[in-house]
Amino acid sequence: MAELPNSLEDAIAQARTATQAAIADGYTRLQVELLFPELKLMEVAQQFLPMFEQYNDKLKVFFADAGGAGLARRDWTDVPFKITDIGTGRAASIESKVQPEDEIFLFIAPGSPEVPQLEKICAVIGDRPLVMLNPFLEDAGKIGIGYAARQTRIRFLSTIESCYYLRSVYPDVALFRCYPGLWEILVENNGEYQKIAELPQKPSGDDLDMILAKGQAATTTAEGETAAAVPGKKPSVFRGLQRFIKALRN
Fold this sequence. Notes:
By secondary structure, the protein is of the alpha/beta class. It folds into two domains: 8-166, Rossmann fold (3-Layer(aba) Sandwich); 204-220 and 230-249, no CATH class. It has helices at 8-24, 41-48, 66-75, 94-97, 115-125, 146-158, 205-214, 240-249, and strands spanning 29-35, 59-63, 82-85, 104-108, 130-133, 161-170, 173-178, 183-189, 192-199, 218-220, 226-228. The radius of gyration is 19 Å and the shape is globular.
């Protein structure tokens, strides 16, 4: 079982391992989320890329727009893989972006405006594995015209498995998932992080608040069994995660 990392490097290493494990288990649409303010995503991507070394030029890396792709081509010299952008205009050709010889795909920070084009690209990719690093797609269901379009995008998002997730949801409360482990809610207690809940699905904001406020965290196994967990405490009493986030950004 993975433990909360002590540094950004540890977190990225965990994310690589979790992604490789999920791909080995047959998952083909994955996302990795390291959600911290002021995170330098290009540096994170550079440390994440070694997991694709075996694919060499069979890897294709997508950025949200042509500007991001251009900067990567400038800064990432002598790389074997191909770099392109998702593209949102009419001239963006899906056929030119996904080739039969491409075996695996990395999307770096795609956003909700790119979702229509992203859906089309993923449809062409088919069953080949793809990984989204720090996507911002949660509002995608609000974009588009009509109920049918919104539902289509909601279904698209539901096909993506979160294999690694790390976020500070309050100053001293972390939400953590490292595949194949469950979702964990952790709080700082006397300088150490204590797991107060373990859940099979990502908790909503309301679920998280209820667990923390009422101190009724429960550990739910994959079989659905529920057992009492360590009583929760008010988020305002925790300080340690601020130090953790600061360490991650250093």
